[in-house]
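Mods, move this if it's the wrong board.
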Amino acid sequence: MNQQNQRVQMTPLGYRQLVDELEQLEKTKRPEAIERLAKARDFGDLSENAEYHSAKDDLSTLEGRIEELKDILTRVIVVDIQKSGLDQVGLGSVVNIEINGTGHEFTIVGEWEADPAAKKISHESPLGKALMGKKVGESVEVEAPSGTIVYSIKSVK
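Not the wrong board. Structure tokens:
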């Protein structure tokens, strides 16, 4: 199955964030970029007009992101977190794990929502895949460059 037809799982929050981003890009950012391009055109010779080329590149990047978001949103499956249950790890779960006596909390999200700095890990990441479907008290092993790491699941919310 190619990527264009592949379904994308997402939490309701992640879906709403993408919809909001698309709306902002289409209603605010795109008109601003078009206006900037039009003003830059008035600066003179387009072949030597750095502002025009910069504005054109920015608009192109913006249009690319809009198309990417539209594509993702047509393929999204919003996962009902209540139906996934609280007894095992699933999309939308907040998982408390322990590694060598140190506790960590992660939220399992769709790949387009992942943000390791915010402790949101994709269900497609090595750790996310290992945790999916597991229950409190179970342990999972994940291969890392430094060797095998054992994670113990302490709670699932």
